[in-house]
Each structure stands twice: as C-alpha cells, then as structure tokens.
Design goal:
- The complex is a heterodimer of chains A (about 110) and B (about 110).
- Chain A contains no helices and eleven strands.
- In chain A, strands 2, 4, 5, 6, 9, 10 and 11 form a seven-stranded mixed sheet that branches. In chain A, strands 1-3-8-7 form a four-stranded antiparallel sheet, with no helix packed on it.
- Chain A has strands at about 5, 10-15, 20-25, 30-35, 45-50, 55, 65, 75-80, 85-95, 105, 110-114.
- Chain A is mainly beta and about 110 residues long.
- Chain B has about 110 residues and is mainly β.
- Helices cover about 0% and strands about 55% of the residues of chain B.
- Chain B is built from no helices and eleven strands.
- Chain B has strands at about 5, 10-15, 20-25, 30-40, 45-50, 55-60, 60-65, 70-75, 85-90, 100, 105-110.
- In chain B, strand 7 and strand 8 (about 70-75) form a beta hairpin.
- Chain B is globular, with a radius of gyration of 13 Å.
- Classes of the chains: A mainly beta (about 110), B mainly beta (about 110).
- The interface between A and B is medium-sized, with 30 and 25 residues.
Chain lengths: ~110, ~110
C-alpha cells in the first residue's frame, strides 16, 4: 500500500544531542513537508521541499535542518540549537503543488527530551 | 503573518445534535480550505475541502465558505460519539497548495 512512513514513533533526545526523524513516501509525490504540533495547538510548518535537492524554510525553521536527496525521502534533524524540541512531528506530502490536491500525513513521531 | 483562528471550545454536544465549528482566516489570497479531524496521538485526517463560496456537503458533514467575510465553518449533523476529536481548520494559498496554515483546533465531545 502507498503511504508515508515515519520512524521512529517515539524518540528521546538528550540535551545537546542532534536527532534525526525519518520520513519516506512511496506515493511518487513531488512535495514533502514537516510540521510541528505542540499540545493543544495546531500544526506549524518547519520546512518544505517541492523538488529534489531543494527546500525552503517554513515558519519555525530555527534549530532544524532537512535534506531532500531522493524524491522518496525527507529526513528532519532536530539540532541542539532547538531548545524546546518536545512536540509531535508530522511529515506530509502532496502529489503536486500546482493544483488543489489532498495533503497526505504520516503517522507522526513524538519527540521528548530526557 | 497568516493566521487562522478557530472558536476556542471545547465544544460539547449531545448525540444526534448538530455540531458547529467556526474558523476565520486573515490572508485574503488563501484559495483552499480544509477541515481535518485528529484523534489524540494520531495524524490529522482530511474530512472536507472547499474552494468556492457557498456550501459543500458530504454525508453528515457540510462545509461553508464565505470569502468576503473570510469565514469557514463545518457542520456535523447527527453527531456521534465517534466524532469526538479535535477538528483543525487549515487554509492554503494559491502558489503552493501544500503549505497550509492551521488553526489551533477545536475539541469536540459528543456525549451519549
């Protein structure tokens, strides 16, 4: 079945540590997105990529980094510069950004600080 | 700064009643609007999308859009306990349809 796979489901970060969240899609979608959700809040855009080897900052990019070396993969690194990383992280993809299409979400990664 | 505001809730309705969820948006260039349902600890699930002024119905759900008033609403008829969830309103622009701005969500509880 086609879809978006995020791993791990739960992740714990020690202070000063970088951690990487995985996002893989087999939908052949052009664009991929990372959103952050804090308890009781909506989703906020961290980074997005509309084509391979290109990505743009979203509203809250500080303390995060991404890469898009393959169409299928869009990993997110939470760096030690992100002082409040505890949140639910959602990866999403869309077939094309030029028409109204459905945004597909992965199942999410819950990141907590030890 | 693009903003999407939802009625704060939480909203509690009896089973079988109509639940009304409201949302306003600040960016007039927004062209696409979505309602997502999210259960605790799960990812959002798209339940309605609307792009033109007026009403759009899908089963028990009706979305309403008024671009002049920058207002979007979702009506859930014959509410069921399984409808209990957080409902997220989202708006998208015309240059990149995947870049959505989300509201903070409204918690809906349907009690038997």
């Amino acid at each position: 079945d086609g879809g978006i796979t995020q791993s791990p489901k739960y992740l714990f970060r020690k202070e000063g540590q970088n951690v990487t969240l995985s996002c893989e899609q087999n939908l052949n979608h052009d664009a991929m997105y990372w959103y952050r959700q804090d308890p009781g809040q909506g989703l906020r855009l961290i980074y997005y990529s509309q084509i391979v080897n290109d990505f743009q900052k979203g509203d809250i990019a500080e303390g995060y980094s991404v890469s898009r070396e393959k169409k299928e993969s869009f990993p997110l690194t939470v760096t030690s510069a992100q002082k409040n990383p505890t949140a639910f992280y959602l990866c999403a993809s869309i077939r094309t950004v030029t028409t109204n299409e459905k945004l597909f979400f992965g199942s999410g990664t819950q990141l907590s600080v030890l | 700064q693009k903003e999407v505001e939802q009625n704060s809730g939480p909203l509690s309705v009896p089973e079988g009643a109509i639940a009304s969820l409201n949302c306003t948006y600040s960016d007039r260039v927004s062209q696409s609007f979505f309602w997502y349902r999210q259960y605790s600890g799960k990812s959002p699930e798209l339940i309605m999308s609307i792009y033109s002024n007026g009403d759009k119905e899908d089963g028990r759900f009706t979305a309403q859009l008024n671009k002049a008033s920058q207002y979007v609403s979702l009506l859930i008829r014959d509410s069921q306990p399984s409808d209990s969830a957080t409902y997220l309103c989202a708006a998208g622009g015309g240059t990149s349809y995947g870049k959505l701005t989300f509201g903070q969500g409204t918690i809906l509880t349907v009690h038997p």
